[in-house]
Amino acid sequence: MNEGSSGSEHEEKPVYAENDRSEHNRWLVEAVVAATSRMRNRRRRAPQPMHNSRLTGSMRVEEILNGHEGIITGLISMKAATFRALSHLLGATNGHVSYLFQHSGETTSRWFFIVLQVICSLKDEFITQPDYTTVQPLILEHADKYRLWFDGCIGAIDGTHVPCVPRCENADAWINRKRYHSQNVLAACSFDMKFTYMLAGYEGSCHDARMLEEAIAFHGFPKPPPGKFYLADSGYANKDCFLSPYRRETYHLPKYQRRRVGLGNRREVFNYTHSSLRNCIERTFGVGDPLLEEYDVDCVPVGGNVDVNADYVLGEGINGAGPNTGTQPHDSSRGAMNHMRDMIADEMWERYQSFPWYKTT
């Protein structure tokens, strides 16, 4: 009996040993956590403020406006007087644009977009509808060279490419034929270098002719009445209200200017005269393009057609008739425009051969 009792007592585990082991494990865990936390705190750098300039937004603007003229021109591509005039036109003051400084990127981006929308609201003042009732002043000023054939012409159309950053899922569609990502921009202008139409936001791979078709069908392109037409380059078909040059013939003015001999045939005479008149849109694009060249590519994302339109509205803001007896298109078919072009070319060639002075005009 005593032997059995002594055996049971030997099998029982002491309670105090289990408690000591649990307490030891708890202390061990707490020590590891404390050591880990201390190591993390040592590695963590003290936070440094990002927006720590002593100048407020209005102070920075005043410093730039009142500083050297070259600084503000380099920063925003316009002179201080032009900036003040634009600020007055938009009803904004330096205090209203202070959000540009000492604020988060989200705030800056959001308000910058709002400002662009405001600028685009000025398009009706600077991008005006074509005038169908009078002969363009440039044509009247050079009557011997242009009016016999182009007094029904109301302007020129062309496209240009603006670098952009597309979304990853469809980036290839935005690669143009020069192998960089861009938006395709279609514009029309009068011969006094004023934009009369602007469409932006199409992929760089979109052909100019397709973009023009969609502009007419869906985006309110101002088609002229019968008897009026636009000049277009060889990227557009010679049809409807668009008069294009002859293909596979010299067209651009610099190539003619490098020649030592005169024009060789009726197609060259037509292309030379067509190019010299249509050159106005190249010069009109030149007003807005220097502003676009100041953009970093990241500043014109896909969908940023507002940025592009705003740029050309700014360009317009910064730079701010006799009887219609010439040859006119009779209908909108390709055959009719080809016939009209051939008639003009024949008359130009005959005049070119008969009057040597025409070679230098």
From TrEMBL:
Any matching Pfam family: DDE_Tnp_4
Basic and acidic residues bias (residue ranges): 8-20
GO MF, one annotated term: metal ion binding
Domain DDE Tnp4 residue range list: 157-286
Keywords: Hydrolase, Metal-binding, Nuclease, Nucleus
Annotated localization: Nucleus
Region named Disordered: 1-20
Keyword Phosphoprotein: no
Cofactor(s) needed: a divalent metal cation
Record's GO cellular component terms: nucleus
Similarity section: Belongs to the HARBI1 family.
Name of this chain's protein: DDE Tnp4 domain-containing protein
Source organism: Ficus carica
